[in-house]
Amino acid sequence: VQALPSTLILNEQGVVVDVILGGREWDSAESRGLIEKQALHNQISERQ
User: Fold this and answer.
1) Counting Cβ atoms within 10 Å, is residue 26 exposed (0-12), middle (13-18) or buried (19+)?
2) pLDDT at 41
3) How many domains does the chain have?
4) Would the N or C end of the chain have less CB density within 10 A of its end CB?
5) Is residue 2 part of a domain?
């Protein structure tokens, strides 16, 4: 998983759990899922 620079990781309540700096990799499926959710959220927000 390639993270975008300074990607915010949010939990289910929308609270920032962690910040990924560009180039840092996450191994756990949970982290990947959170990154993907946030990326999807960002795409939706940009369209509005």
Assistant:
1) middle
2) 79
3) 1
4) C
5) no
pTM of structure: 0.33
33 falls within a domain: yes
Q: Which long-range contacts link 4-8 to residues 24+ away (Cβ below 8 Å)?
A: 4/39, 7/35, 7/38, 7/39, 8/38
Q: What is the pLDDT of residue 16?
A: 66
Distance set, CA 41 to CA 2, 34, 38 (Å): 17, 10, 5
- Would you say residue 13 lies in a domain? yes
Q: Residue 1: inside a domain, yes or no?
A: no
Q: Chunked in runs of 10, what are the mean pLDDT values of the chain (48 residues)?
A: 61 67 54 76 75
